[in-house]
Design goal:
This protein is of the alpha/beta class. The protein contains twelve helices and 14 strands. It has helices at 7-15, 33-36, 53-63, 75-87, 103-110, 130-136, 159-172, 225-235, 244-255, 257-281, 303-314, 338-352; strands at residues 21-22, 70-73, 93-98, 114-119, 141-147, 175-179, 201-206, 219-222, 285-286, 294-295, 298-299, 316-317, 319-320, 330-333. A seven-stranded mixed β-sheet has the order 2-8-7-6-5-3-4, with helices on both faces. A three-stranded antiparallel β-sheet has the order 10-14-13. Strands 1-12 form a two-stranded parallel sheet. Helix 10 (257-281) packs parallel to helix 12 (338-352) and helix 11 crosses helix 12 (338-352). The model has no long low-confidence stretch (mean pLDDT 93).
C-alpha cells in the first residue's frame, strides 16, 4: 500500500504548542485528569480484547444496541481504518462525500479501492438528501462513507435521510460507514445515530472531540453480523485492545457527560456570537451557522496561502479548504473559547484586508 501525505495532519504539529490562536483544530478544549476525578487507583494491567465490558455497557446504554455490538479501538481514526481494512479488497468501489476529511478517501485509495465522490451541495448548506445519495450510487458499490456531523462543514443528516440511506444500503447490498465523532456536539438538534439500522450500517466514534480527550486514544466501532466479524479480525492485527488506563478514564468521562455538555454548550454559544459578528464585518465572507461546533466559511481567495501567512506572521492556525478538497473555504471551530476565536478571527481579517 502507498499512502499519500496527510496534508492537514502535518500542519497541526507545526501549530500545536507554538501558535497563539488555534481556531481550526476539531476538538473541544482539552480536559485535565484533575478535572475528571475518580482515578485514584488507576492500574496498568493488560487490556481486554475489544474493550472492557464496563465501557461497552456504557456505550450501549448511551447509544443503543448491545454491548457486544461495540468494539473499542485506539481512537476513532483506528476505528475507521479497521472498517476499511476489514471490508475492502483491491478493486472495490467506494463512494466518499466531498468536502472530505482526507483519510476517509486516502485510506481506501491506498488499499486499492476505486474512490468516487458524493458532492455535498454548497447551495443546500452542504446537507444531503436521500434522493441525492441514490442518484450518486455507482454500480457495484461496496462501501459508502459519510460523517455526521459533517467534517468540515458541520452539516447534519436529518432523521429521514439517515433512515433513507440505511434502507438504500439494505436494498442495494452495500455497506455504509458513518463517522459520528462530532454528532454529540449538535446541541438542541442532535441528529439521530445511524447505528443499529441494519447489518449494512457501521458507525464509528470516540471520546476525543466532545470530551476534549484526544490523548486517551479511545474510539469504537458499532457493527453487527458479518461486518462486525470482519472489523474484529482486522483489529486483531492492529492494537487488538485499547490501553487499560484510557479505557478506565473513558468510563469516567462517559458518566460525566452532562457536566461536559454544559461546558461545551457555553463555549459554542459564545463562539457562535463571535463568528456572527465577525462575518458581518469581514470582507467577502459567507458564514453558515452550524448545528454543532464546526463551520466552513467561504472567502474570495485561496485559503492555502492565507493559512501559511496566518501561521508564519500572526501565530494563528487555520485549516485551509484545500485540505478538504474545496478551496476558498476554511474550517472554523466555534468551541475553542472566546479569546482564541476573537484573536484568531482578527488575524484572519487583517490578512484578508
Amino acid at each position: 500500500m502507498q499512502f499519500e501525505p496527510f496534508d492537514l495532519l502535518w500542519r497541526v504539529p507545526e501549530a500545536h504548542g507554538r501558535v497563539r490562536y488555534d481556531i481550526s483544530s476539531s476538538d473541544m478544549p482539552a480536559q485535565r485528569l484533575s478535572d475528571v476525578g475518580g482515578l485514584e487507583d488507576l492500574g496498568l494491567e493488560g487490556g481486554t480484547l475489544g474493550g472492557s465490558r464496563e465501557l461497552r455497557d456504557l456505550l450501549a446504554g448511551r447509544f443503543g444496541g448491545r454491548p457486544d455490538d461495540y468494539i473499542v479501538t485506539c481512537g476513532a481514526s483506528e476505528a475507521n481504518f479497521a472498517v476499511y481494512a476489514g471490508l475492502l479488497s483491491p478493486g472495490d468501489r467506494v463512494l466518499v462525500e466531498r468536502p472530505v476529511y482526507q483519510p476517509l478517501e486516502a485510506i481506501p485509495r491506498a488499499m486499492g479501492a476505486q474512490v468516487d465522490h458524493l458532492v455535498r451541495p454548497e447551495s443546500e448548506d452542504f446537507r444531503l438528501a436521500t434522493d441525492l445519495v441514490r442518484e450518486a450510487l455507482p454500480d457495484g458499490l461496496r462501501l459508502l462513507t459519510l460523517t455526521n456531523l459533517h467534517n468540515p462543514t458541520g452539516a447534519a443528516l436529518d432523521a429521514s435521510t439517515v433512515q433513507g440511506i440505511a434502507d438504500l444500503a439494505a436494498e442495494r447490498g452495500f455497506y455504509v460507514l458513518v463517522d459520528e465523532v462530532f454528532r454529540e456536539l449538535a446541541f438542541g438538534r442532535e441528529p439521530p445515530t445511524m447505528g443499529g439500522r441494519n447489518e449494512y450500517v457501521i458507525v464509528t466514534s470516540g471520546v476525543g472531540k466532545f470530551y476534549g480527550a484526544g490523548g486517551l486514544r479511545i474510539g469504537w466501532v458499532r457493527a453487527t453480523g458479518e461486518a462486525r466479524r470482519r472489523v474484529r479480525a482486522a483489529l486483531d492485527y492492529m492494537s487488538a485492545n485499547p490501553p487499560t488506563p484510557s479505557d478506565r478514564i473513558a468510563r469516567v468521562l462517559l458518566r460525566q457527560k452532562e457536566k461536559t455538555a454544559l461546558r461545551n454548550r457555553k463555549l459554542i454559544e459564545e463562539g457562535r456570537k463571535i463568528a456572527r459578528e465577525w462575518a458581518e464585518t469581514a470582507r467577502a465572507v459567507r458564514y453558515i451557522e452550524p448545528v454543532g461546533h464546526l463551520s466552513f466559511p467561504s472567502i474570495e481567495t485561496d485559503t492555502l496561502p492565507l493559512a501559511d501567512r496566518l501561521l508564519n506572521e500572526h501565530s494563528t492556525f487555520l485549516a485551509p479548504g484545500e485540505c478538504f478538497g474545496l478551496p476558498r473555504h476554511f474550517r472554523l471551530n466555534l468551541g475553542r473559547g472566546p479569546e482564541q476565536l476573537e484573536g484568531g478571527l482578527r488575524a484572519v481579517s487583517r490578512v484578508l484586508r
